Structures are given as C-alpha cells and as structure tokens.
Amino acid sequence: MNRILVIEDEASIRRVLKKIISEENEAYQVEEAEDGLLGLEMIKNNDYDLVLCDIKMPKMDGVEVLEKAKKIKPEIPIVMISGHGDLDTAVNTMRLGAFDYISKPPDLNRLLNTVRNALENKILLVENKRLKKKVSKNYEMVGESDAISHIKDIIEKVAATDARVLITGPNGTGKELVAHWLHEKSDRSKAPMIEVNCAAIPSELIESELFGHVKGSFTGANKDRAGKFEAANTGTIFLDEIGDMSLSAQAKVLRALQESRISRVGSDKDIKVNVRVVAATNKNLKVEIEEGRFREDLYHRLAVILINVPALNDRREDIPLLVNFFTAKISQEQGTPIKTFSFEAINLLQEYDWTGNIRELRNVVERLIILGEKEVSANDIKLFASK
C-alpha cells in the first residue's frame, strides 16, 4: 500500500485528485490536508510515500511546507501543484527539493506518470539507503557480546552524522574496523576514506603529509603536493594513533577542525575542506594531556563521540564466532578446504591470554589451518597456538 498525501485548500480539487489517483491503482491510499500547517503536521506524524502540495494556501504556503518537510523527512518525494505557474516558481521549487512541478488544471496522463515515477524513485532511495547500511565483507564486525553490540548501536546512531569520533582501545582490537564501519554507513561513503598512521610518519613530515606543501617549502619539496585532508574532501579522514602526533601538527589539526580550512606547508593560502574526522589511539590521552604531550582543546574537539573497543580477553564469548569467521575467510583466500575446530579446541582458545587481541587470534587460526589436522584438536592448539 502506497500512502499519498494531498495538501490543497480547495475541497473540490482535493476530491478530484483523490478520485483520479485512487482509481488508477487500488494500492494507492490517498489522505487529505486542507492547509499547509495541517499538511506539515501530518508529514511529521506519518510515513507517506508521496506528497502532492499546492503552492498558494492559507496558514502556510506550499513552498514553506516543501522546505520544512525536506528537513524533517528528506526521502519523501513532493510534487508541487499551482494554478499560478511560472518558470521561476517551478525552478525555485525544484531547487528546494521538489520531485516535480505540475500546473493546474493538471493533465491526467502527466499527473499519473508523475505519481508513478515519484513512487518508483522513493523505492530506489529507500533501497540505496538500505545498501549503504551494508558494510563491505572486508570490514565485517564479528561478535555478539554486550560490548560489541553496544559499539554497533553507537555506530548506527552516529554514522549518518558528521560528529567526530575518537576510538580507543589496545593494539589489535579492531579500531580501524570501527572507523571503516562509521564511514561505510555514512552519507559520505561514496567519497574516499583516507587513512593516516600518525605513528609511522616522522614528526618533521607529518604536517606535509596531512596538509600538503608548496614547491620549495623545504628540502626535497620539488613540486606542489596536496595533503591527506584535501584528498579526503567530502569524505572521511582516519587519524590512526593520533596520540603519537607532534604538538605542532596537533595545532594545525585543531585549526582545521575549528575553521574547516587548512594551508599547505610554505603557503599562506587557505584551502576550504569538508572532512569528517575519525581518530584512534591506544594511549590514554588524558594522561598524555597531563604530561604535556597532547593538547586538551584538540582532545575535546575529537572526542565528541567516544568508542572504546575492548580487549579480546574481555569478550571471550565472541571467540567461537571469530574462529569460524577467520577459518572461512582464510580458507577462501588460500583455496583450501574449510577445517573445523573441536569443542575442546575452542575451549582452549577461549582460555588463552590474547595479548595481541584480534590480530593475534587471526594469526593463530591461520597457523592452525596450515599445520593442524582436518579437525583442529586440543592437541593442535597445544602444539601450534602456544606463544
């Protein structure tokens, strides 16, 4: 059933539109609103698949209804109808997000074609939104523990926003995975996610890496070069191990967050950037702040949303799922038959002290697939999984 709302102050026109649309398809359920204010209230409180809205109405005109409705529920197609049609009005409503513009009295075929097209477009938008929520298999987050379920819930709530996220947790727990989930579930997913390992870049080069440089700004700068912030424009930049970033680079990152502008090393020209920042660290940044190694103002800019990824030892109930996941993935990569793990083998893995976390578990599973028997036994664990 497709719910269609007709917002029109003239009762006779409402009746005609309702009759035409309802008779076209019995799956069309048409509801009415006699003015813009009531129509907007109905849009707020109901889920409609299409809205037909007059422009000249009492209490609130159609253009205002269009603007406000698009902010509340941007996915609803809205077709504007007017008896005072002109090109400027049509262009303005389309610019504001209207699906189409029809003059009164509406041509019957044009009206019904527009209704069909708008409803089909709504289905495509919903499907695209659903597909966006699917994350690449390369970054699948495996686990049903309370800790992992909590992280997934946070991601669902914040992914579609531009809120900055700080991901904390020990090495090997999957902080990068969380960052990819945030990006791939966001509206920025079609734009790039640029990763920067702050710990792997020498302190004297980090500013050039992040913000770019101009030719001659330092020895070896033979040509102009764009930085990672520019490369991530309209997308996401992931600052991994941000606790290892130099204080001078931190100051520039802070400015980029405050002003959405950066400048290349050796240049005084500002470049506007539209970037979502996700950062991660295995350090306690509050301790780093106390010891003067990290800027407190930058911390508060980054930590709008905090996500702590637990150590594997704190989510041992996920180990059977992780073993199955890695076994299937590694076997596929290597083109080998999938091995099984005995109940006793899984129990031993759950008792293991995983200082290297998920990364270590994957390595152990790969070793067992290569060296273990067809069914990996407790004895295989003792032989090949020991440190």
Rg value: 28 Å
CATH topology type of the largest domain: Rossmann fold
Taking all residues together, what is the mean pLDDT? Answer: 90
**Structural class determined from secondary elements:** alpha/beta
Corresponding CATH architecture of the largest domain: 3-Layer(aba) Sandwich
Instruction: List the domain count as a whole number.
Output: 3
Main sheet: which strands, in order across? 2-1-3-4-5
N-end to C-end Cα span: 61 Å
Instruction: Write the CATH homologous superfamily of the largest domain.
Output: P-loop containing nucleotide triphosphate hydrolases
- Low-confidence regions: none
Give the ordered list of helices and strands. EHEHEHEHEHHEHEHHEHEEEHHEHEHHEH
Q: How many beta-strand segments?
A: 14
Beta-strand residue fraction: 5-15%
The major beta sheet can be summarized as: 5 strands, parallel
Task: State the helicity in percent bands.
Answer: 40-55%
Number of H/I helices: 16
Anisotropy-based shape:
extended
CATH class of the largest domain, named: Alpha Beta
Task: Give a written overview of the molecule.
With 387 residues, this protein is α/β, with parallel strands linked by helices. The chain folds into 3 domains: 2-132, Rossmann fold, CATH 3.40.50.2300; 146-310, 3-Layer(aba) Sandwich (Rossmann fold); 313-384, Helicase, Ruva Protein, domain 3. The chain has 16 helices and 14 strands. It has helices at 11-24, 36-45, 62-72, 87-95, 108-132, 146-158, 175-184, 206-211, 228-231, 247-259, 285-290, 296-302, 319-334, 343-351, 357-371, 378-384, and strands at 2-7, 28-33, 50-54, 78-82, 100-103, 165-168, 193-197, 236-240, 261-262, 271-272, 276-281, 305-308, 340-341, 375-376. It has a 5-stranded parallel β-sheet, sandwiched between helices. The radius of gyration is 28 Å and the shape is extended. The mean pLDDT is 90. This is Response regulator. Residues 141-370 form the Sigma-54 factor interaction domain.
